[in-house]
Known about the structure:
Its EC number is 1.4.3.5. Belongs to the pyridoxamine 5'-phosphate oxidase family. There is one protein chain. The protein is of the alpha+beta class. It has two domains: about 30-130 and about 175-215, Pnp Oxidase, Chain A, CATH 2.30.110; about 130-170, no CATH class. About 25% of the residues lie in helices and about 35% in strands. Strands 1, 2, 3, 4, 5, 6, 7, 8 and 9 form a nine-stranded antiparallel beta sheet that branches. Strand 1 (about 50-55) and strand 2 (about 60-70) form a beta hairpin. Helix 4 packs across helix 5. About 20% of the residues are buried. The mean pLDDT is about 95.
Amino acid sequence: MSDNAGDVTHLRREYVSSGITRDTIASDPFVQFTEWFDVACKVRPDDASSMTLATANKQGMPSARIVLLKHFDVEGFAWYTDYQSQKGCELEENPQAEIMFYWYGLERQVRIQGRVEKLTSEQADNYFHQRPIGSQLSAVASQQSQPIASRDELEARVEQLQSQYKNQEVPCPERWGGYRLIPTKFEFWQGRESRLHDRFTYSLDGNSWEIKRLQP
Length: 216
């Protein structure tokens, strides 16, 4: 192995996008997010809703993973998962999180912090039955984040469920449902030339949003 194995300091890119200013961003972060999200959907519709979800347990140990945003409005940003998964257990212990979107082609990043609450069982059931049947069966078969001896065992569970629910509606498991992150802070980041990036934060102050430009 060479002395510089794993050294990637030579990998660089230049950011060439136009900037953002206090005069060009919306006063409401939900409006600003919607504008950027709509553009991202036009550029990469297959990946625009991918977001990093960062949680932490009660000891403060963080964990992060990619999940998919399923819907959002002024009440928050929602996704669905197994409540008994690692992220579900951590949110039970510490119901605060951050989600982050990175849209490579646009050189844009959005971070959103806030508290997290569960969606209703009706919302979970409604979305569960909008999913493809394969995804429904996988959610029932998999005890997310728990060890399993082999993939064969998991696939066998799915086959058994296919037979059990043939021509029947697959019930939504009680351990499966949705979460909503209710924002208290947004950060919008726009890549700029020579690393002089544009960064603006929106912090909730009572019922209004305080906007600040941050140094890159």
